[in-house]
Predict the structure.
Amino acid sequence: MEVLAEQRPRRSGRPLSFDRDAVLHTAMLMFWRHGYETTSLSDLTAAMGVTPPSIYAAFGDKKRLFLEAVSLYLSGPSSPWAIIEGGATARESAWALLAGAVDAFTGQDTPAGCMLATSAISGSASAADVQQELSDIRNGVEAALKARIITGMEAGELAGDTDAEALAGHVTAVIQGMSTLARDGADREKLLRVATMAMRAWPSVAADGPRLPFVG
């Protein structure tokens, strides 16, 4: 496996000879499909249609290219943080995360499954920092959902003794499991049924509030 050097001199003042956004999108798809460690420099340059010096000039090294690709994957209205913040209730946020994952994992023009899961590192010492970056992202999404659940508890959407950590972990585990199912060939209809079943574990009645409608 080829790995870009951590440091490579850059030529200042020379304009890029390619569409950086388009190249980054291609790199994202490569990492999404094959993972971080198994995607080599030759794989990237062949798919992106650029030379190694151009990659160094535009992105610095493989790690920075990968992390930019991850940022692209997590950006826009499909960002998990935007989805969590956009839900009128914690329940709606959780369902939107699950449904959004189903859409992302079964896209017609993208690899199956979750890029963060596909890019999981095997554990080599040279990629330990990248492994930690991915772990921090996944834990950050779960923490954001947990915080939204706690807000829902304070608003009376959920009982005060709800285990927010376990509930957020449940949603996270289902999403990661659906990624594996998608990689193994599960279609959108099956994953939606899995997501719907997962929501049946969601507490539906606050201690002193009304029964909440099912979302999904």
Remarks:
- Residues 178 and 194 are 8 Å apart (CA to CA).
- The two ends are 44 Å apart (CA to CA).
